[in-house]
């Protein structure tokens, strides 16, 4: 990797700012001063220092966010607030993107990374990765609904959903449930309940695969994944 690209990608400044730092002789590679930004280095093998500070190279970043309502799962939009707008410059330099999406008014677990291979594994229909949601539903959710979800809900447009798990937490005029699906069609859970003549009032994703939302994260907050959480992602 070019030395100027490495330093810029690790947050030491823009390419222009890094160029000035190099010209001042403030960068050393294996103890030797380097002034040419075009020089290539092996960041994981060579000792790169800037003003005496060792440059720790990271290729990927993995963030868990509790997505708030009113924010879209995208990296840029001319009118809407995106999840990446909530990140600091320290994370943005890695150019992370959301893995999958949550509807604008849906809260909860959202993984952001720049690891395309991991994102593909988690989103591939062949992998059948479980996604679990907590929902408040207007209407009495019944055991008949549980069986319908288990069989595979037929949406109003005729699409047949894969079997889903519906657990009733509280039954009443406004019911509370957990729903686990293995696909992610547009507004899927809302449309599944519409098909059984009920309306989702509130929706929050709490788990994706073996990764669970850290409930200590308030809406809009995020943190890096722990080593244990990374191992759960496989």
From TrEMBL:
Similarity field: Belongs to the pseudouridine synthase RsuA family.
All residue ranges annotated as the RNA-binding S4 domain in the record: 1-61
UniProt keyword list: Isomerase, RNA-binding
Descriptive protein name: Pseudouridine synthase
EC nos: 5.4.99.-
Molecular function, one GO term: rRNA pseudouridine synthase activity
Record bears the keyword Membrane: no
GO BP, sorted A to Z: enzyme-directed rRNA pseudouridine synthesis
Pfam families, A to Z: PseudoU_synth_2 (PF00849), S4 (PF01479)
GO cellular component: cytosol
Organism the protein comes from: Melghiribacillus thermohalophilus
């Amino acid at each position: 990797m070019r030395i100027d690209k490495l330093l810029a990608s690790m947050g030491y400044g823009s390419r222009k700012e890094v160029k000035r730092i190099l010209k001042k002789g403030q960068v050393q590679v294996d103890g030797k001063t380097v002034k040419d930004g075009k020089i290539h280095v092996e960041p994981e093998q060579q000792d790169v220092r800037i003003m005496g500070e060792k440059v720790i190279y990271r290729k990927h970043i993995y963030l868990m966010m509790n997505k708030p309502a009113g924010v879209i799962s995208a990296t840029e939009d001319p009118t809407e607030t995106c999840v990446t707008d909530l990140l600091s410059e320290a994370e943005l330099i890695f150019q992370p993107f959301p893995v999958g999406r949550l509807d604008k008014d849906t809260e909860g677990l959202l993984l952001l990374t720049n690891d395309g291979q991991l994102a593909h594994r988690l989103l591939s229909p062949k992998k059948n990765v479980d996604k679990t949601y907590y929902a408040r539903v207007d209407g009495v959710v019944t055991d008949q609904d549980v069986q319908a979800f288990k069989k595979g809900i037929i949406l109003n447009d005729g699409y047949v959903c894969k079997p889903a798990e519906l657990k009733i937490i509280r039954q009443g005029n406004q019911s509370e449930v957990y729903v686990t699906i293995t696909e992610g069609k547009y507004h899927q859970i809302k449309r599944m309940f519409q098909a059984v003549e009920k309306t989702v009032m509130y929706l929050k994703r709490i788990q994706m695969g073996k990764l669970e939302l850290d409930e200590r994260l308030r809406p809009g907050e995020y943190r890096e994944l722990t080593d244990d959480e990374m191992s759960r992602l496989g």
